[in-house]
């Protein structure tokens, strides 16, 4: 088969951050009319490659060619003008502006220097409708949930041909290359389907799409070709049809997946004595309906439910991050008033938020400082952790959790998502909690890191720690938990010991119907 | 798409409380209520004379111009503390050039405006390219310009130039027998222009975008650097223009003119419903903020027995109340 010439060709790309090589000699090419997956573990260099391509980071070596002509892209604006549009992992739009403005800002229709608002709204509404959405384009973006915002970001990226010039607002008129960096992590199934339909349509129009996702099923569903990176280097480029999932994972992590399978269905038996934490009729108006709950030492309590079903709200009540309106919490048999997180931390409860970037990490501090934070807080500022002990602890946890780069002085913000999660985990483990609440600890994390975190949960519970494990992935919850709780519409609708009769299908039924016998 | 439909209706239900115009309406309503109070209480002292209302613009025109400049800066999430010093410096520079050097006002005014704008440009440049907090950079500007006043002269320079005199005395007649000063008319023109720029030009929308999320604005491919620098340039220009209007109003240059006026400007912006965190607010709100602050002064004058310090106390209380309102509004938005 004679291949057409690539629309984008990157050759020998090198990028260094203060001495460490994030990308070394990476080649990458994109053909018109294909969906191309960029794969690799966290920290493999996917985001860096994208940021180099879109002019966020300057290039340290190598060449970029568009349509065979070498180009030098030094800013996101320039990338857009060259026909490269990007949707980043975190929604990068302005919450305070209207949906219409977010879609068209920077290329608003103007007449005589004056923005033509009617025309702007018309074009935006047209684009939104084309993508099968029904939104009020005059409403502020912030009034819509994250998933919708993500779709708006995609509409913006795709619609970045200059509609004012074309007059029609044709989607994709000027976009040659569309980069989607983890666009699906905040979308539900239907929304993902719609996104895929859109991607296929754009592919038909000859747009080259670069797609990054941690969901391998999605890669196999929608992509044509893939490029695999590992540790900042190119591992290979393959047609999706030619490479099975198992082989792909091997390429990504550089070792076999068997370790994942080793995780037994049942591991360690929980303590049968008094529960470590017991909630009675705990509730918060607008957050979650009254619920009863028990967690024992050595027990993993898995909470399943859709996004927004009240999983996080429940966890925040147990941690005192939100105050309850009603009900009681008993910790080790004693009633505990959890008015603020400190009340819970003092009783041995630790909570890993699902928003690790905004509610956990201090990105400007080093890995060492982030790890030591909670321990220091628990000791009080008048009793600093001795330097030697501190360095030893930090080194131990960096090694135990395999945090990469294994440099305690690295800025935490520069780490990949999975490694940031591990830093947070290390921070809490250092305080030796008795109950660990994990809210979506594996979201946005690659297969290898996921398995590591799951294994860690198992070994922690075997050592006698109580764990509340919240995840949208049912298999994960079922594999790890001794007890499974199901949430639906901000209500804990079912709680049962994990066993052969509790299957993913059964849990889905409960989520769908809200009934449990 | 049923999920999105239900979300949509929920979105609309919350819209009234979320509407960004609400704070402006609250301030406008407050103004009306305060005015009604004055009209009721001081009816027999001629409070309802149209000129009392017009005097609000005449006495606060310079503040309005400074506050409009400050609105641009605050909308991007920044702050400009150099406003009062730039005003003071402009009065000194103008008085000195006109009185001591004998230059015509027609020539002096553009020079003063250019100096103010250039000062703002420099501060904006430093803020953006050296990534320094605007608070610190404009604080340096505050000291710098105040110091420059004293370099020109340690004493006040009164202006007897006939052009200045004529401009200051000119009444712009209005139907009904009341009038406005030139300065008041200029300030209203600035307000109208600012409204147009903020809502009908790409530059204006970029100001809002940067205030909403600077990082996003950058990734959306907007020219953030130029916009941020331009915003401080606008503020410097408005400060200088405000200084010119102040010179007309007082007819002198003094190294101690307009000390702390930047705080009045910021107060007016905040009372007018603009969020200090940026991205939300209207220049029309700033007008009402200025009017409310001016009306407090007027009411206290009419009361007659209260010392003028009560103006400060009332302003303090108002500011506090409005910040609390802002806080609850943003908190609601987040949930």
Alpha carbon gap, first and last residue of chain A: 58 Å
What is the number of helical segments of chain A per DSSP (H or I, 4+ residues)?
19
Distance between the termini of chain B: 23 Å
Could you state the CATH homologous superfamily of the largest domain in chain A?
Answer: P-loop containing nucleotide triphosphate hydrolases
Shape of chain A: globular
The CATH class assignment of chain B is Mainly Alpha
CATH topology of chain B: ABC transporter involved in vitamin B12 uptake, BtuC
Notes on the structure:
The complex is a heterodimer of chains A (517) and B (335). With 517 residues, chain A is α/β, with parallel strands linked by helices. In chain A, strand 16 (326-331) and strand 17 form a beta hairpin. The longest helix of chain A has 16 residues, at 189-204. Mean pLDDT of chain A is 82; it is low at 162-173. In chain B, strands 1-4 form a two-stranded antiparallel sheet. Chain B is globular. The A-B interface holds A 56, 75-77, 79-81, 86, 88, 91-97, 101, 105-106, 108, 110, 113-115, 117, 132-136, 139-140, 142-145, 148, 156, 188, 190-191 and B 1, 3-5, 7-8, 11-12, 14-15, 18, 20, 199-202, 205-206, 208-209, 211-213, 215-223, 279-280, 333. Chain A: Residues 8-256, 271-514 form the ABC transporter domain. Chain A: Keywords: ATP-binding, Nucleotide-binding, Repeat, Transport. Chain A: It comes from Actinacidiphila bryophytorum. Chain A: Pfam families: ABC_tran.
Notable characteristics:
heterodimer, A: 517 residues, alpha/beta, Rossmann fold, six-stranded mixed sheet, 22 strands, 35% helix, B: 335 residues, mainly alpha, ABC transporter involved in vitamin B12 uptake, BtuC, two-stranded antiparallel sheet, two-stranded antiparallel ribbon, 15 helices, 4 strands, 76% helix, cell membrane (chain B), transmembrane transporter activity (chain B)
């Amino acid at each position: 088969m004679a291949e057409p010439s690539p629309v984008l060709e990157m050759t020998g790309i090198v990028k260094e951050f203060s001495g460490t090589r994030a990308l070394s000699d990476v080649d990458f090419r994109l053909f018109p009319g294909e969906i191309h997956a960029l794969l690799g573990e966290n920290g493999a260099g996917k985001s860096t490659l994208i940021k180099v391509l879109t002019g966020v980071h300057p290039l340290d070596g190598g060449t970029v060619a568009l349509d065979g002509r070498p180009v030098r892209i030094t800013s996101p604006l320039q990338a857009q003008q060259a026909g490269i549009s990007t949707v980043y992992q975190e929604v990068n739009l302005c919450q305070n502006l209207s949906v219409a403005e977010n879609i068209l800002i920077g290329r608003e229709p103007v007449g005589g220097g004056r923005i033509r608002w009617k025309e702007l709204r018309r074009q935006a509404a047209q684009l939104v409708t084309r993508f099968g959405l029904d939104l009020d384009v005059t409403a502020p973006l912030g009034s819509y949930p994250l998933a919708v915002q993500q779709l708006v970001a995609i509409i913006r990226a795709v619609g970045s041909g200059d509609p004012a010039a074309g007059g029609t607002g044709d989607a994709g008129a000027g976009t040659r290359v569309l980069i989607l960096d983890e666009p699906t992590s905040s979308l539900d199934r239907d929304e993902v389907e719609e996104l895929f339909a859109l991607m296929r349509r754009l592919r038909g129009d000859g747009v080259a799409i670069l797609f990054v996702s941690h969901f391998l099923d999605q890669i196999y569903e929608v992509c044509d070709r893939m490029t695999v990176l590992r540790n900042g280097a190119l591992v290979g480029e393959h047609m999706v049809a030619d490479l099975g999932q198992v082989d792909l994972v091997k390429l990504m992590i550089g070792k076999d997946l068997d370790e994942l399978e080793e995780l037994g269905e049942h591991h360690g038996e929980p303590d049968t004595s008094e529960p470590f934490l017991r909630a009675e009729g705990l509730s918060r108006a607008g957050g979650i309906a009254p619920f009863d709950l028990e967690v024992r030492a050595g027990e993993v309590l898995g909470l399943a439910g859709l996004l927004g079903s009240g999983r996080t709200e429940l966890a925040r009540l147990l941690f005192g991050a939100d105050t309850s309106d009603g009900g009681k919490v008993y910790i080790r048999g004693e009633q505990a008033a959890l008015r603020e997180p400190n009340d819970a931390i003092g009783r041995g409860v630790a909570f890993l938020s699902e928003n690790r970037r905004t509610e956990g990490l201090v990105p400007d501090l080093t890995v060492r400082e982030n790890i030591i934070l909670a321990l220091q807080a628990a000791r009080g500022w008048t009793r600093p952790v001795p330097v030697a002990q501190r360095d030893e602890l930090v080194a131990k946890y960096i090694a135990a959790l395999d945090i990469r780069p294994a440099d305690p002085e690295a800025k935490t913000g520069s780490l990949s998502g999975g490694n940031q999660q591990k830093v947070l985990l290390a921070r809490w483990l250092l305080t030796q909690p008795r109950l660990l609440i994990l809210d979506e600890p594996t979201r946005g994390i690659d297969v290898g890191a996921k398995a590591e975190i799951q294994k860690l949960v198992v070994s922690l519970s075997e050592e006698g720690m109580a764990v509340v494990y919240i995840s949208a992935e049912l298999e994960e919850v079922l594999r790890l938990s001794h007890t499974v709780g199901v949430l639906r519409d901000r209500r804990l609708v079912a709680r049962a010991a994990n066993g052969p009769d509790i299957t993913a299908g059964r849990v889905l039924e409960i989520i769908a119907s809200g009934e449990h016998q | 798409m049923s999920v999105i439909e239900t979300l949509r209706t929920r979105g609309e239900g919350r819209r009234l409380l979320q509407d960004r115009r609400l704070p402006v309406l609250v301030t406008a309503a407050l103004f009306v209520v305060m005015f009604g109070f004055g009209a009721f209480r001081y009816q027999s002292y001629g409070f309802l004379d149209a000129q009392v209302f017009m005097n609000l613009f005449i006495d606060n025109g310079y503040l309005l111009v400074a506050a409009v400049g400050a609105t641009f800066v605050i909308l991007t999430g920044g702050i400009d503390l150099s406003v009062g010093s730039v005003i003071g410096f402009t009065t000194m520079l103008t008085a000195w050039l006109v009185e001591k050097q004998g230059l015509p006002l027609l020539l002096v005014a553009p020079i003063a405006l250019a100096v103010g704008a250039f000062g703002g440009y420099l501060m904006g440049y430093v803020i953006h390219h050296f990534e320094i907090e605007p608070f610190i950079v404009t604080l340096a500007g505050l000291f710098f310009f105040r110091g420059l006043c004293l370099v020109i002269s340690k004493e006040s320079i009164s202006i007897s130039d006939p052009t200045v005199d004529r401009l200051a005395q000119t009444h712009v007649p209005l139907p009904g027998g009341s009038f406005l000063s030139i300065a008041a008319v200029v300030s209203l023109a600035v307000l109208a222009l600012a409204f147009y720029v903020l809502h009908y030009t790409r530059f204006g929308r970029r100001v809002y975008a940067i205030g909403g999320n600077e990082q996003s604005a950058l990734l959306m491919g907007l020219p953030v650097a130029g916009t941020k620098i331009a915003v401080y340039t606008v503020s410097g220009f408005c400060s200088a223009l405000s200084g010119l209007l102040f010179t007309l109003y007082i007819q002198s240059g003094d190294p101690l003119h307009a000390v702390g006026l930047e705080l009045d400007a910021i107060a007016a912006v905040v009372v007018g419903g603009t969020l200090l965190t940026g991205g939300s607010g209207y220049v029309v709100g700033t007008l009402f903020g200025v009017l409310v602050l001016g009306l407090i002064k007027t009411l206290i004058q009419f009361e007659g027995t209260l010392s003028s310090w009560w103006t400060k106390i009332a302003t303090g209380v108002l500011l506090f109340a409005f910040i609390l309102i802002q806080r609850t509004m943003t908190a609601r938005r987040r949930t």
